[in-house]
Input
Amino acid sequence: MKNFLKNHGLWVLFAAAVISVALAVMSFFSNTSAPLSNLAGVLASPFRSAYTSVATWFNDKQNYYKDNTALEEENAALRKQLAEMEKAIRQAEEDSAENERLRELLNLQKKREDFEFESAYITEHTVTNWTSSLTLDKGTKHGVEVKDCVIDETGALVGVVSEVGYNWCTVLTIVDTDTSLGAQVFRTKDLGLAVGDFSLMEERRLRLDYLPAGCQLLGGDLVETSGLGGYYPSGLVIGTVEEVQKDDSGTTSYAILAPAVDFDGLTEVFIIKSFDIVP
Output
């Protein structure tokens, strides 16, 4: 026996350890669950954890995508709503401007019952170094003639018809170099001649020439058509005095006028086809 233990003691000790560990493992399995089921659970546990992590990540991404998509849809809906509101505001502003324009025209018609109007839309603006003109969509078909005055809805003078076709006409604006109109200063009743000037046309200004000696014009004085000679109606607003200057000789004065009409804002004008001559 001593020799057996001496020669095989380590193997016996090893076998005893293995048996002890095996018994302990079996005892653990027997106290918890079936050995194979428990072993399968132990082996599957890491995979379950990995699956749970992946599923959680996927759900988070899916929720993020859903939230982001919902937010984009909400933003798109809000942008559409804002665009509709802006459109409604623009329409309201246009309607308000149209109503104001019609009120101005109605007031003008009440004041000048002697005028026969023909409304016209501007189809072309032409501004060069030599001319400033408009093309309208009314002509001889509508009773328009050369030298008819053209005004805006407030009664401010836009220009004079210079050429007429069947369904169109050309209007030289009051700042064109060919403009020449009898004028009167409303405050002082001084008479003059409103003329286009090459050096002022680019600035959309004109001159009031042939003023009487000693006239006392002030900045802001209103200047209207005089109606003398019966070529044009009287009382059409040409513009206002900006400044008074001396000519090159220094003996006579002339005024620089700012037109009352807003050329950039014009879309529709009114042609005066006939009027009563005021003596």
